[in-house]
Amino acid sequence: MNVHRLEDIHFRDPYILAIPSRKKYYLYGSIGQNVWKGPAIGFDVYESEDLIHWSGPSPCFRAPADFWSDHHYWAPEVYEWEGRFYMFASFKAEGVPRVTGVLVADQPEGPFELWCRSLTPPDWECLDGTLYVDDQGDPWMIFCKEWVQVEDGEMYAVRLKPDLKGTIGKPDLLFKASEASWSVGGGEQRNRYVTDGPFLYRMQNDELVMMWSTSGQDGYTLGLARSVSGKPQGPWKQDEKPLFANNGGHGMLFRTFEGQLCLTIHAPNNHPNERPVIFRMQENHGQLTLMVNPT
Question: What stretches pass through the bilayer (predicted)?
């Protein structure tokens, strides 16, 4: 199997699953070559023991002939839950709103198969669902309602059933993209605001924060919101300054096997140059800081 460095991997929306028992990291992402045009081929995975050398790609999901979606296979995130591995990802078909669905596999490398077609409302254009498990052990999904439908992109939370096959109650609106001072609107009226890539993290000081991405002054931008209640329902308050403002984003956090907190994003945000990048992070007194040089 081929071995690559991150700069050789054409992925958007990178997600890294660390499995200590295997001493391996698994990298998933939107396959850059077919994100925007042409039929999607599915999802791939890379494996690494050191975050530097990555073997792959290996196909972890290929849609069967009767699969309902045929394009926009985006932002796969994989979680271990009750002994199996669940992939949350975005899917779309012509004339059908984009959804976050769930795939399942017995191993992190797949093969994944359909578990739940959609966890988002059937008439909403949605994407980038991420799993969060609260202090009571209940699963939630945080997801985006697209600017293409509402112009000012929205962020929602919905509680999930324990088997991750459905939702409990209606989604709660958390915030709109324009509420962040660092978010910049697009379009002729400058009123189209993007919400992308939420990821929740419990800080050492017990604050619940959410990373999410939008358009900023210098391109794609990654910022931070904080839950005033400490719960996924919020209310959420936006930090005044973004975490990363140099045309990169859709981030998530993970810890190395040595305990180092790391951030991965794709950068730059320009097709076909987007690549996964990993930064070491410092966490002090409720603040996250990127270390200057990526790993």
Answer: none
Q: Domain range for residue 234? A: 3-294
Residue 249: what residue type? G
Q: What does the block give as tokens for 90?
A: 């975005």
Question: Under DSSP, is residue 7 helix (H, G, I), strand (E, B) or coil?
Answer: helix
Amino acid at position 46, single letter: Y
Task: Look at the pTM and tell me if it is higher than 0.85.
Answer: yes
How many domains does the chain divide into? 1
CATH number for 60: 2.115.10.20
**Residue 35, helix vs strand vs coil:** coil
Q: Residues near 69 by Cβ (< 8 Å), separated by ≥ 6?
A: 40, 63, 91, 92, 93, 96, 101
Phi, psi of 136 (to 5 degrees): -90, 0
Q: Are 104 and 112 in contact (CB under 8 A)?
A: yes
Q: Which residues pair with 45 in a beta bridge?
A: 28, 58
Q: 250 is written with which tokens?
A: 């859709």
Cα-based torsion angle of the residue sequence 283, 251, 210, 187 in order, rounded to the nearest 10 degrees: 130
Neighbours of 68 (CB within 10 A): 14
pLDDT confidence of residue 295: 61
